[in-house]
């Protein structure tokens, strides 16, 4: 009986994808880095491996080009950074967009930021583009934390207190710490 139940759950969860809560924070260093800061857009979308590769190949500038249309096709959710305002953005795991994203069985959470181009960036390792692999699960709720810095976006883990880390940003309920 126990084995049948485990088999049933395994079959039920095959191909199931967790819905994620995505939290985007903006580093205080952004304000200090730019003398005249542009509005920075950060897009989040659940995508397939093929879509992630397509966006990576096209590059950040072409992705954010109004004529490209890919943002609409991916149903990207956008948050903004303004010099006057440094809000934390949360895309809830129960946001309506998850219903349509799940129809295509996504494998990645794509995060892409319209940070200014830096000549030291290479297309193969553009730090303004991040694809986070999604775990296949039916019951696990997950949260992904993203930190936008002056020249890159990074995935971080939120920890109550981690000492001695160079990449941290204090927040009301703890610190953001870069995942290595």
Q: How would you briefly describe this protein structure?
A:
The protein is α+β, with helices and mostly antiparallel strands. It is built from 6 helices and 10 strands.
Q: Any overview of this molecule?
A:
The chain has one domain (17-178): Sandwich (Immunoglobulin-like). Helix content is 24%, strand content 32%. A hairpin with a 4-residue loop joins strand 7 and strand 8. The strands form two sheets. The chain has a six-stranded mixed sheet, with no helix packed on it. A four-stranded antiparallel sheet has the order 3-2-5-6. Residues 3-15 and 159-175 have low confidence and may be disordered. With 180 residues, it is of the alpha+beta class.
User: Segments where pLDDT lies below 50 for 5+ residues?
Assistant: 3-15, 159-175
Q: What is the CATH topology classification name?
A: Immunoglobulin-like
Classified in CATH, the superfamily is: Type VI secretion system, lipoprotein SciN
Count helical runs.
6
CATH class: Mainly Beta
Q: Which architecture per CATH?
A: Sandwich
- What is the molecular shape? globular
* Number of distinct beta strands: 10
Helix content: 10-25%
Strand order of the largest sheet: 4-1-7-8-10-9
Number of domains: 1
